[in-house]
């Protein structure tokens, strides 16, 4: 008899997809930084998300056309408003801060979410969330350390923190509106709404860029933001998270900030001082504490509960079998009295 060995499905390829998505977004911060001086922030958001919305809409039109209704339109519009605010603040912040600072300060939205959600859902933050917040505050303190002049956050750093706040609101609203709706259609709508808002705000508050005189590098950067940093990275993330456990998935996606700093140093020549390194390390640790450790602890608790249930069922089965043996004698036990009675009968006849 031969035994067929079933080979488990590997998730290595999907984990690589998450790392690629994180790298694309990390490079996106560098791309914005190198473009924002030549192309105003609001207009950049407008071009980026209009391109992304049109492209994603055309690709998924056949599948999402039947799902479109006023419910999707209202929810997608609300999400689009906060998507615009978060990316507008992030792009504006990059006019006055480094790409390295922006990469890590933006990821603070992960730590903000539990406390902002507490105000909305009244669900108290866990011990992990509180520890993560304290660690991140220490990290921001290191980032703001300016040597002999003390601690200070530039305008760009402050508005980047505002971007993290808007992004946390966007995540909470997504969790609220996603159930019962087509998420792909919501994504297309919010992309288009964010793009339209970018053009409107840009037209009211910023000079109109001269598209005819834009350099090839600027055009390449805009295409990268619209196609790669929006559509492709999102596709990679959504495909991979369906095959990777939440705990490692969150850890892989958290490397976006690490990629952002790495690309900033290599491509922009930014200098990573010791206080900045300490601050980035603390912020990354806070993200891991907030995202990875709770999911890992929850998984371990579930495994222990399953093992306890299995042990309890095994004990109950053994007890039932012992009780059955005592209550219902076996065939061998039942034959013994009959043999004794027969023997006594024969003795009486003698």
Description:
There is one protein chain. The protein is an all-alpha fold. It is 79% helix and 0% strand. It contains 13 helices and no strands. The chain has helices spanning 12-35, 41-64, 70-93, 99-106, 109-121, 127-143, 155-177, 183-205, 216-240, 246-254, 256-268, 274-327, 331-349. The longest helix has 54 residues, at 274-327. The protein is globular. The protein starts with 11 loop residues before the first helix and ends with a helix.
What is the tally of beta strands?
0
Radius of gyration: 30 Å
* Estimated helix fraction: over 70%
Overall mean confidence score, pLDDT: 83
How many alpha or pi helices?
Answer: 13
Strand content: under 5%
Structural class: mainly alpha
Give the overall silhouette: globular
Mind summarizing the main beta sheet? none
Kindly, what is the distance between the CA atoms of the first and last residues, rounded to a whole number of angstroms? 60 Å
Q: Provide the low-confidence segments as ranges.
A: 1-8, 330-338, 346-350
Q: Could you spell the SSE succession in H and E letters?
A: HHHHHHHHHHHHH
Features:
350 residues; mainly alpha; disordered N terminus; disordered C terminus
């Amino acid at each position: 008899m031969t035994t067929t060995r079933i080979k488990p499905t590997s998730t290595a390829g999907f984990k690589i997809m998450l790392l690629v998505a994180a790298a694309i977004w990390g490079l996106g911060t560098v791309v914005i930084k190198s473009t924002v001086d030549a192309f105003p922030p609001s207009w950049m958001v407008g071009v980026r998300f209009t391109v992304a919305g049109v492209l994603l809409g055309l690709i998924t039109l056949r599948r999402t056309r039947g799902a479109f209704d006023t419910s999707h339109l209202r929810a997608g519009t609300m999400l689009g408003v906060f998507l615009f605010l978060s990316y507008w603040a992030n792009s504006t912040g990059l006019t006055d801060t480094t790409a390295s600072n922006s990469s890590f300060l933006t990821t603070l939205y992960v730590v903000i979410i539990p406390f902002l959600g507490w105000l909305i859902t009244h669900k108290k933050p866990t011990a992990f969330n509180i520890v993560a917040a304290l660690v991140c505050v220490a990290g921001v303190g290191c980032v703001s350390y300016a040597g002999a002049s003390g601690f200070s956050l530039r305008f760009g750093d402050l508005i980047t923190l505002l971007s993290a706040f808007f992004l946390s609101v966007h995540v909470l609203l997504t969790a609220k509106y996603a159930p019962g709706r087509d998420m792909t259609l919501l994504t297309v709508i919010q992309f288009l709404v964010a793009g339209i808002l970018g053009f409107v705000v840009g037209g009211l508050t910023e000079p109109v860029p001269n598209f005819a005189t834009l350099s090839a590098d600027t055009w390449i950067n805009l295409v990268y933001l619209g196609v790669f940093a929006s559509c492709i990275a999102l596709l990679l993330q959504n495909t991979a998270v369906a095959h990777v456990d939440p705990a490692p998935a969150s850890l892989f996606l958290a490397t976006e900030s690490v990629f952002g700093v790495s690309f900033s140093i290599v491509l922009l020549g930014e200098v990573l001082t010791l206080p900045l390194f300490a601050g980035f390390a603390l912020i990354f640790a806070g993200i891991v504490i907030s995202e990875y450790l709770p999911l890992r602890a929850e998984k371990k608790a579930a495994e222990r509960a399953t093992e306890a249930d299995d042990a309890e069922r095994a004990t109950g089965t053994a007890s039932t079998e012992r009780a059955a043996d005592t209550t219902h004698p076996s065939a061998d036990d039942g034959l013994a009295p009959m043999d004794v009675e027969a023997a006594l009968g024969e003795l009486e006849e003698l």
